[in-house]
Write a structure and sequence with these properties.
Blueprint lengths: L8 E4 L11 H4 L7 E11 L2 E6 L2 E6 L9 E8 L5 E5 L5 H14 L3 H13 L2 H5 L3 H17 L11 H8 L3 H9 L13 H19 L4 H30 L3 E9 L2 E12 L10 E9 L5 E9 L2 E8 L2 H8 L2 H10 L4 E8 L3 H12 L11
Parallel strand pairs: 11-12
Antiparallel strand pairs: 1-6, 2-3, 2-5, 3-4, 5-6, 7-8, 8-9, 9-10, 10-11
Length: 376
């Protein structure tokens, strides 16, 4: 089923109205992102209503003035610590789609990191893989292998350039298919082994297994939740980068980095100055990188490239980290000249405002002007 993108109003399920400790997800086999049809049966008190969902009744809490007999379309947004449903509309404008994804990224800035952390934890457990049928197991193993390939680490010998990383994550899947429809490329050239493609196929397999199993086992529910969250995370980054590209505002990417067995993400903001009359080789590209280096603290790289010239300022939140890194600048300058840069400017600074700089970058990149966020 194609995802439905809409602004939403939260509708938390009122579990406190139950006399027994049963939860909503024990009564309904719910999964994150699932779209439900509901009917308002009665008002049970101030901001309390009785809904019928999947043929069963459930008391809920909602500040909206719902009417008896009203039909609602709901989306499952949260299962723990309580079930959270959102009222959705079957169709949405482009700005509503954008706002929904921007809100998701703003409220889940570690979503991509969580994809890699939870994936590594799930697939390190051989029990999960061995209990799957062969079709789902093969896809799950591909996901596990790709998770390891995409993480930047000392032990990973397959250090992908950024464009390959983006394609392998699956962010180019729909644009590539669009070019096929426009007869601009051959279908065989479209990458079919990206993370998003694998997760979509894995989710289809897992949902079929859940239907056959009736009540989903815990391991199956965890795998479904992982696939659904991963797909939404990748889609959110796709939509926001597409919007930003159309505006000429640049790109935002997150790259997972493994430091001492802990997965971090480097936040990259990339923009290009389109000066009138400037040739492609003279356009200036600016890259901002934010990363927490554990013992060395937070750092920011502010690089600017134009033709064969490069300027790069390394900013550290810890003055001792700045002093430590400063000694490597001459060697770095020599290496940059060896790979073709003629004009090289490097500097290393102490800066205690890195978090504020990062917040400003996020505010500039993620649209907020039309965001709707009403909580019951």
């Amino acid at each position: 089923m194609a995802p439905i993108y809409t602004p939403s109003v939260s509708l938390p399920v009122g579990l406190t109205l139950y006399e027994s400790p049963r939860t909503a997800k024990e009564i309904w086999p719910l999964s994150l992102g699932e779209i439900l049809e509901a009917r308002v049966e009665a008002q049970a008190g101030p901001s309390r209503f009785l809904l019928t969902i999947k043929g069963k009744s459930m008391p809920v809490s909602c500040e909206l003035p719902l009417q008896q007999g009203q039909r609602l379309t709901l989306r499952v947004d949260q299962l723990e610590p309580q079930v959270l449903l959102r009222i959705v509309k079957p169709f949405a404008s482009a700005s509503e789609i954008l706002n929904e994804y921007a809100k998701f990224i703003r409220s889940n800035p570690e979503a991509l990191r969580d994809l890699f952390v939870s994936g590594r934890e799930l697939f390190l457990n051989d029990f999960f893989l061995e209990t799957l049928p062969e079709g789902a197991k093969a896809i799950a193993k591909n996901v596990a292998n790709l998770l390891n390939t995409l993480i930047l680490s000392e032990s990973n010998t397959q250090k992908l350039p950024l464009n390959e990383f983006v394609a392998s994550l699956g962010m180019m899947l729909e644009p590539d298919l669009l070019e096929v429809l426009q007869n601009k490329r051959d279908l065989k050239s479209v990458r079919s082994e990206g993370m998003k493609a694998y997760l979509l196929r894995l989710l289809d397999e897992l949902k079929l297994l859940r239907q056959d199993a009736g009540e989903a086992p815990e391991y199956l529910a965890k795998l479904i939740e992982f696939a659904e969250k991963g797909i939404k995370t990748i889609e959110a980054n796709q939509i926001l980068n597409l919007h930003s590209e159309i505006k000429g505002a640049g790109y935002f990417f997150q790259v997972p980095v493994l430091l001492h067995e802990d997965v971090r993400v480097a936040d990259l903001f990339i923009s290009t100055e389109n000066d009138k009359g400037a040739s492609e080789t003279k356009k200036r590209t600016r890259v901002l990188v934010f990363l927490n280096l554990d013992a060395l603290g937070s750092m920011m790289v502010d690089a600017s490239v134009s033709g064969h010239s490069i300027g790069c300022v390394f900013r550290f939140a810890d003055s001792s980290a700045k002093d430590f890194f400063l000694q490597f600048l001459p060697e770095l300058e020599d290496n940059m000249k060896k790979i073709g840069f003629e004009g090289v400017f490097l500097n290393c600074l102490y800066d205690n405002s890195l978090e504020a700089r990062k917040r400003n970058c996020f505010r500039e990149f993620f649209p907020e002007r039309d965001a709707i966020n009403l909580f019951a």
